[in-house]
Amino acid sequence: MMDYTQLTALRAILQTGSFEAAASQLGVTPSAISQRLKTLEDLLGTVLIIRGSPATATPAGRRLFRHAEEVTLLETTLGTDLNGLLPNESAAPIRVVVNADSLDTWFIHAMAQTDGFLFDISTDDEDVSTDWLRRGEVMAAVTAHAKPVQGCDSIALGAQRYLATASPGFVTEYFAQGVTPATAKHAPMLQFNLKDHLQQTWLAKEIGKRITPPAQFLPSTHGFVSASIAGLGWGLNPEILVGEHVQAGRLVTIGATPIYDVPLFWQFNRVTAHALDPLTTAVKRIAKQWLKQ
């Protein structure tokens, strides 16, 4: 059996980044934290923490950290199920990876409707977010993949609707003859990062071939909208963020088919499914309000 006093020390070190901060969090001395970690490392015969600023985990340490967080979440839920018969614990952490567009539009509303938890949110492209689940780094993910990762369940949420947009001045300069292979080749395209292929996918569908336009890299959902209005490039923006700008004429849609829907799914670890149920319920409810069904 694992000694959860030692696991709690490991978790506190990685949460706070140092032995001193971990000791303060747990109300013990730094030497006690160090001794608990050493005992755990000796028991397992491997190094778990790389000492530095901040302290980081080895692969084995990350796996134990995940286990400790899952246990904390499960015990918090157990305490609720037993009507408070267990000692009152602090809010349990939930580690989730979400694509930036979801985080900046609807996902925070789901978080706000989930009480009693602390959130540790990471962002990544919806096409690769399942990799986080596969590596065991998160408990749940908003993803573009319907097929569940091994050990996970998958729920369809609806589709995030995008509009291919640009400023009127940009369209006059680059797309006066429409979106074609010749015009798109020279028109600067907005791109979130190297993992973001949304614009290229839409463009290939629009013009019937794949090309690589010049790119402006901008890792911000709201920055995309501002950059589009400023005429820095064209891009696909969430309809719920640019609808008013299109109506006001600050942006115009481009191409013959400017609407592009990306189906989204909620995948979550089956082991912690019951504990995550309040968040899953909120995610489903909010997604139904914000996403295309």
How would you characterize this protein structure?
By secondary structure, the protein is of the alpha/beta class. The chain folds into 3 domains: 4-81, Winged helix-like DNA-binding domain superfamily/Winged helix DNA-binding domain (Arc Repressor Mutant, subunit A), CATH 1.10.10; 94-159 and 266-290, D-Maltodextrin-Binding Protein, domain 2, CATH 3.40.190; 161-261, Periplasmic binding protein-like II (D-Maltodextrin-Binding Protein, domain 2, 3-Layer(aba) Sandwich), CATH 3.40.190. 46% of the residues lie in helices and 20% in strands. The protein has helices at residues 4-16, 19-26, 30-44, 59-81, 100-112, 130-134, 168-174, 181-184, 198-207, 221-230, 239-248, 273-290; strands at residues 49-50, 56-57, 92-98, 117-123, 140-143, 152-166, 189-191, 215-217, 235-238, 252-253, 259-269. The strands form 3 sheets. Strands 3, 4, 5, 6, 9, 10 and 11 form a 7-stranded mixed β-sheet that branches. A hairpin with a 5-residue loop joins β1 (49-50) and β2. The radius of gyration is 23 Å and the shape is elongated. The protein starts with a helix and ends with a helix.
